[in-house]
Model the fold of this input.
Amino acid sequence: MKQLLLVDDHTLVRSGFQLILEAQEDITVIAGAENGQRALDYLKGASRPDIILTDIHMEVMDGIQFIQVVKRDYPDIKIIVLSMEDNIQIIQEVLNLGAEGYLSKDSNVEEILFGIQQVIRGEHYVSAALSIELIKNLPKYAHLEVDRTEIMRRYDISERELSVLELIAEGHTNAEIADQIYLSKRTVEGHRQQLIEKTGSKNTAGLVRFGFQKKLLI
Done:
């Protein structure tokens, strides 16, 4: 029996999918949470699920930030996104973060259940309509520029923090960064730590890797 955690900011959605999922012989829903932070709080104090089914757009902590933290701290938990979001760049980002599946809420129940079963079996799955859209428009999506402002908004990164990140990536120490952008060393240290926390990175090396992956650093 696979244990599943539902994360969605709509109570009716959680309740509805819980009824559907618990009708399956090999799935039990152990809990529901309205955002990523509440789900992380649950993971710290309870039995861990085998699978997390999560939305993307939620208050407090959205799905992308949530996935990043879960894959860092609980890498064995499989994650499936269930969302109305059909932006191919976001889907690609979710999969790059390590999610095993991406399902559209527009899909019929049979496909959603099929996708979950594929992930349970160790496969990856993306809703058929989204997969077709990706294949048909691959040349167009391959040349899309990353919206840097959107990435900064999503991870709550300020222009000052971006400047600090750029100087960190160049190999400067906290003291050198402080001199260059006219801040105290302690303030720079604070920015560095905030960046690590906001991006879900383990350390400075992970932070720099994040910057390049998200195209914040060029």
